[in-house]
Batch of 2 targets.
Target 1
Amino acid sequence: MSKALVIIKSMGIGDLCILISNIHAISKKIAQPVTVLAQKSTRAKEILKQDPHVKEVIELDKNEIKGFINIIKILKNKNFDQCYIYSDSIRFFLISKFSNIKKIFHYNFFTKKGKNFSKTAKKFTEKTLNVEIESQSKIFCNKKNIDEAKRKFNINTDSKNYIIAPSASGPTKRWDINNYIKLLEEINKSYSSKFFIAGGKNDEALIKNIIDSSIGKHCISLSKKSVEEIIPIIAACSYAICNDTGFAHIASGLGLKCLVLFMDSPPIAYGTYSKNISIVVPEGESIESCVHNTKGKDRILFKEVLEKSLKLIN
C-alpha cells in the first residue's frame, strides 16, 4: 500500500487552497489518502480536516519549517514511499532523500521564480501522474456543521448571505474600507442582505469600521473565530466579495460565487484557476497586466464592483 507525502512550501492560505485539486489528484491516483506537510500559516489542519483525500496534516511553524534534522526525524518514522514537492527547493528534496523516501517528484530546481503559481502546479501534477486534472479546488465541510451554522446565525433564504473579506496580506492589496461600507449599503438597498465579515484578530480595527457604520446592523464579525469555525459559516452562505485573500479562496473552494478584487497581485495565477471566481482589476489594467506591484487599489472602480456584486445573484 502506497504512503504518499505532499510537501507545500508556500505559506499562504490561498496558496494551499489552490493546491487542493492537485492533492486530490494524487490521492485518487494512488487510491489512498495522503499526508500533507505545510506551514501553520496555511491553516492546512483546519482547511483539510474533513477532506477524505487527506489522512494527516503535519504542520510546522515558521521556525520549524526552516529546520532540517527535526523534519527528517518526523518523516523517517512515517515510512513514506513517495513524495510530491510543490517547490523547486533543494532543501526539501534533500530532506526527502534523507528520510528514505524512494520516489521523489519535485519541480525542476531554480525554475519556480516568476512562474504562474496555479498553472505550474497543475502542469507538474499532470506530467507526474500522467492524468488531466481540473484546476478548481474543493474544500470539504460536513453538512451537519453547515446546518448548525445556519441555525446559529439564522442563515436562510429570507436574505442574501455574503462573506465579505476586506483585509489582505498588505495595505496595497486592500480596497478602501469606506468603499466596502458604501458597497454593502448599496447591495442591501437592492436585496435584503446579511454580511459576514471575515478576518483575523489583526483585522478587528478594520472590521470595526464596518460594524460601527450605518450598515453595521446587517453585519456579523468573524474576527474572533478560528478558520475551522468560519468554514461552515462560509459554506452556509451563497456569495463572497473579497480582496485577494485567503478567505476568497476558501469561499471558492466551498462553492460560493465569488467576486475577488485584484489590485496588487496577479489574477492570472490566483483567480483564473477557479470557475467560481469573477475578477475585478484596476482601471487601465487587464487580467494579464495586473501583477505584484501594480498597486492599483485606488483604481478599482466602485461602479464596476457594485455591478459585478449584484450580478453574482443572477
Note: The chain is about 40% helix and 20% strand.
Target 2
Amino acid sequence: MSKAAEGGMARGKAAKLKRKQFEKALEKLQVELVRLQEWVKYKGLKIIVIFEGRDAAGKGGVIKRITERVSPRVFRVAALPAPSEREKSQVYMQRYIQHFPAAGEVVIFDRSWYNRALVERVMGFCSEKQVEAFFRLCPEMEKAFVDAGIQLIKYWFEVSQKEQTRRFQARIQDGRKIWKLSPMDLESHRRWYDYSRARDQMLAATDTDFAPWYIVPADDKRRARLNCIAHLLSLIPYKTAPHEKQKLPKRQKPKGYVEPARRLKVIPQKY
C-alpha cells in the first residue's frame, strides 16, 4: 500500500466533531448497544469482535465507549498479555480460544491471534515459517469458528504517521498516559514500514467473504469511535428483546430497626 493510500485510509475529509456533538451521538449509539445486548442474550448469539491496528490508533478508546454502558457479563474484553512459557508451548490460537463466547455473549479482542502476523513477525518473536503456517491455517480456523455459529467481525484501525507521532508525544508528556507507552510502542514507531508490509500481507491473506476486514480511518478519534460503533451495530441484525415493564417496589417497613451508632472511619471530604 502506498503512502498516499495509507494517508487516505487514516484521514477523513470532514471537520472534527465538537465534544457536545460527539457526546450526543455517542449517547444514542450506546442506547442501541444496550438494545443489542438484550437481543444477544435473548437469542443466545455468539459474537467475536477483533480490534487490530497500529499502536496509538485508538482501539482502546473505541472499546471503552462500546463497553462503558453495557454489562461486562455480556460484553467481555479479552486483552491478553504476552504469552507465558507454558502458553508458548501450546498450539497457536489455543490461549485465545479459551476466551471465546458462549451463547448470549460478545467477546471483544483488544489484539488477537493476529499478533502472529504483526508484532511477533515484525519484532522477530516468531519465524517466517510460522507466519506462513499462520496464513495458511487462519482462514480455515476462522471458517470453522463461523460454521460453529460465531459471528466474527474484524476491524483494522489505521492512523497516519503524523498523527501517530503526535499521540506518542502526548503520551510521553502526559502523566496520565505514560502507562500506555511501552518500549514496544517506541519500536513500532521506528519500524513504520515494517509494520506496513506486515499489515498489507496480513490483510491480503486473511480477508475472506465469511470474515472480512473492515478499515477504520482513525486520525479523528471522535469520528472513528462513532463510525465504528455505528458500523458494528449495522452488522448484527437485532430487535428490541421482549421484557416485562419494570416498576419500582415500595420499601419494606422498618419494624423497629434503628441505625446503630458506629465508630467507623469516614473518608475526608476534600471536594
Note: Strands lie at 46-53, 75-78, 105-110, 150-158, 213-217.
